[in-house]
């Protein structure tokens, strides 16, 4: 009797798309394509920013950091999920699950803070341009980096620590395709009140703090642009840019909040829908960020064409040079 009471599962099995089990291998195709597009888009953007000297400024450094986080958070989830879909490698140890949980939520929270820092950076650059270099310097960057790591690390470490203290004595089927916090906690035999409270604290800390500050920054940016420009194409460009950024950010925060709250408030959502929504929470921003911050940014676009033109000229020079030697 005592052994049964102390029993706790040490391995778990993912069941992310139970209604689509017969089509598991077909599901791998779109997710593989999405993963490759994330790697290609973000790596290309990183390469352009690192290669073009004129892009070595704080704003583009933040975009580089965003690219790295997007690649890491998607890599923490998708490869393991693809192995499960293609080869039925669905098992994971408790230690592996907690590790994946920490890095997934830690990196997502870093992205949230980074989006906030990017919004504040644009606010200072547009609303206080004469003081930009005075305010945004290497010292501020180091302080923000330390704050970001401490905030995300301490909160997500507490979240994972609480999950690690639970016993899992009934089912070991995780109704997800990766180790989401509440998907694992919902399998516990012990009281999960502390875990639920911690999940709500995460939403309050990141969504409740970051969204108002981001929204405030963009409203001030729009106000400054409208005062400084005539009602022509420049105003439309400002509205379009700020609006696009806000829509992408709101999608990121909305999906993340619904995912957390649906578990915490016991809202019944089909497993397939919940799994898909959890994947979109990480895949969607990582896929569109290179477009929003890369393709639609004139300086980065020009940098890409400059690199491409140099590569073409180099190739043409290499091909033409031997022909000229043969003629001599």
From TrEMBL:
Pfam families: 7tm_4. Keywords: Cell membrane, Disulfide bond, G-protein coupled receptor, Glycoprotein, Membrane, Olfaction, Receptor, Sensory transduction, Transducer, Transmembrane, Transmembrane helix. Residues 41-293 form the G-protein coupled receptors family 1 profile domain. InterPro entries: GPCR_Rhodpsn, GPCR_Rhodpsn_7TM, Olfact_rcpt, OR51/52/56-like. It is a multi-pass membrane protein. GO terms for molecular function: G protein-coupled receptor activity; olfactory receptor activity. Its main location: membrane. The keyword Cell membrane applies. It is found in: Cell membrane. GO terms for cellular component: plasma membrane. The chain crosses the membrane at residues 27-48, 60-82, 102-120, 140-163, 197-218, 238-256, 276-295. The keyword Transmembrane helix applies. Belongs to the G-protein coupled receptor 1 family. This is Olfactory receptor.
């Amino acid at each position: 009797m005592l052994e049964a009471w102390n029993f706790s599962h040490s391995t778990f099995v993912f069941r992310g798309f139970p209604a689509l089990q017969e089509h598991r291998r077909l599901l791998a195709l779109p997710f593989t394509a999405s993963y490759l597009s994330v790697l290609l888009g973000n790596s290309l953007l990183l390469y352009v920013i690192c290669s073009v000297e004129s892009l070595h400024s704080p704003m583009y450094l933040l975009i580089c950091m965003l690219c790295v986080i997007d690649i890491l958070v998607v890599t923490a989830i998708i490869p393991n999920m693809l192995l499960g879909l293609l080869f039925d490698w669905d098992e994971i140890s408790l230690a592996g699950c907690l590790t994946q949980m920490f890095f997934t939520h830690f990196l997502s929270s870093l992205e949230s803070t980074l989006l906030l820092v990017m919004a504040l950076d644009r606010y200072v650059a547009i609303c206080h341009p004469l003081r930009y270099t005075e305010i945004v310097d290497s010292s501020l960057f180091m302080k923000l980096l330390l704050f970001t790591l401490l905030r995300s690390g301490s909160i997500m470490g507490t979240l994972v620590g609480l999950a690690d203290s639970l016993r899992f004595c009934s089912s070991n089927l995780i109704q997800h395709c990766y180790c989401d916090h509440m998907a694992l906690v919902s399998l516990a035999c012990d009281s999960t009140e502390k875990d639920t409270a911690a999940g709500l604290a995460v939403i309050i800390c990141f969504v409740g703090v970051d969204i108002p500050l981001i929204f405030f920054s963009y409203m001030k940016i729009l106000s400054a642009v409208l005062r400084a420009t005539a009602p022509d194409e420049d105003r439309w460009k400002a509205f379009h840019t700020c609006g696009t950024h806000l829509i992408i950010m709101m999608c990121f925060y909305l999906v993340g909040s619904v995912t957390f709250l649906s578990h915490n408030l016991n809202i019944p959502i089909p497993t397939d829908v919940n799994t898909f929504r959890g994947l979109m929470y990480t895949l969607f921003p990582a896929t569109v960020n290179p477009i929003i911050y890369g393709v639609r940014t004139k300086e980065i676009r020009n940098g890409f064409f400059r690199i491409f033109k140099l590569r073409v000229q180099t190739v043409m020079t290499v091909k033409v040079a031997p022909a000229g030697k043969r003629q001599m």
